[in-house]
Structure formats: C-alpha cells, structure tokens
Design goal:
The complex is a heterodimer of chains A (about 110) and B (about 110). Chain A is mainly beta. Chain A has no helices and eleven strands. In chain A, about 35% of the residues are buried. The mean pLDDT of chain B is about 95.
Chain lengths: ~110, ~110
C-alpha cells in the first residue's frame, strides 16, 4: 500500500540537540498528523495540522503543514532521553473514510 | 492513555486458521479504524466502520472482515491466515466530523506459524 516518504529513516543525536524530520507525498492531504510510537505501544498523537501553512507547537515540538499540502515537518528542540522512539507522519484526506496514510517512521536515538 | 483498549495483547495461530481481534473505542467516539503494522513499517489502513457499516477500505483482501456493534466497539476477523499476516494490528477510534482525529490502542501482536 501507499506510504508517505519520511526522512531521515533514523537519527543518532546527543541529548540537548535539536531534531528535524520531514514527510512528503505525491498527493494532497487535508490534515497532517505526527505520532510517536514506543516499543509495545500504539502510536500516540503529538500534533495535528489542519490548514496549509499552519505552524503549531506542543511544548518543545513544532510542526508545519506545507503550503502545497504535500509535505510537513516536525522539529524537536533540546532533545531529552524520553524523546527516544519512532516518529510517524500521517496524512488524511477530507472526511477520513479512506483512513490515514503513514510514513515508514523516523527512529530517534539519543546518546547521553 | 487514549481510552482505546484492544484484546488480546498477543496471539499465536497457525496458517489456515481464523482469528478475531477486539477493540473498545474511546468514550463518545463513533468511528473505528483498523490498521496492520508489519515490523519496521508504518501502519497500513485496513478498513473503517461508522454506524455499524464499513465506510472505507484499504488494499486488503476480503478475508479481512469486521464488525461494529451498537456500543461502537469493533471486531477484526481474518480468515485463512497466511504467514504474511503476522503483524501488530492496531485499532483507532475517532469522532466523525471535520477533524476526525484518530486515537490508537496498544495493538494486538499476531504471530502466524
């Protein structure tokens, strides 16, 4: 099935560093979402974006909905050990009956 | 804690068998979606149920079927299990409307031997 192009695939960073990851698609989405998944758990919603150009923050996390509606990025500032996990972008079309389309994930690893 | 609960947490089946997975949605949510997540991949949409009817489906064969009950809980049934069906199965609930944000349960890990 279709998946979004998410990069990087993995990141090895030092605690305190800033992190940036992005997601692109060949088709338009009406909503972009960012989720985090820890081992043995389901994805947990971090940020939801509803309008092209929208920039939204949630604590140290900031995400933007691209102007073309075909991309989004997520930034994490001053990373801490509990930020470790897999981050997924997901796109949703209007109405949502065709479900979410996910990226393959960015695996974030933080070295103390 | 999303309020979405799934059972069982783990399951082992053999090829050709049938399996039923269960999901209780978050209070007040009337829509349930099911996803399959293979190891190292993002979740893939299987189908969505709203008002006890399937109202959207991904690229999965008919042996994947589901039900939604009047209390909005849901079941995913998979017949004639294949080795490639081994995956984490995730349920997500949402409230139908303009935003329709989906909240996920912890999943059922299915292993097919």
């Amino acid at each position: 099935g279709q998946q979004l192009n998410q990069s990087p695939q993995s990141m090895f960073i030092q605690e305190g560093e800033d992190v940036s990851m992005n997601c692109t698609s060949s088709s338009i989405f009406n909503t972009w979402l960012w989720y985090k998944q820890d081992p043995g758990e389901g994805p947990v919603l971090l940020i939801a974006l509803y309008k092209a150009g929208e920039l939204t923050s949630n604590g140290r996390l900031t995400a933007q909905f691209g102007i073309t509606r075909k991309d989004s990025f997520l930034n994490i500032s001053a990373s801490i050990p509990s930020d470790v996990g897999i981050y997924f972008c997901a796109g949703q079309r209007r109405g949502g009956a065709d479900g979410l389309t996910f990226g393959k994930g960015t695996h974030l690893i933080i070295q103390p | 804690e999303t309020g979405v609960t799934q059972s069982p947490t783990h399951l082992i089946k053999t090829r050709g068998q049938q399996v039923t997975l269960r999901c209780s949605s978050q209070s007040g949510h009337n829509t349930v979606s099911w996803y399959q997540q293979a190891l190292g991949q993002g979740p893939q949409f299987i189908f969505q149920y709203y008002r006890e009817e399937e109202n959207g489906r991904g690229n999965f064969p008919p042996r994947f079927s589901g039900l939604q009950f009047p209390n909005y809980s849901s079941e995913l049934n998979v017949n004639a299990l294949e080795l490639d069906d081994s995956a984490l199965y995730l349920c997500a609930s949402s409230l139908a409307g303009a935003k329709n944000i989906q909240y996920f349960g912890a999943g059922t890990r299915l292993s097919v031997l």
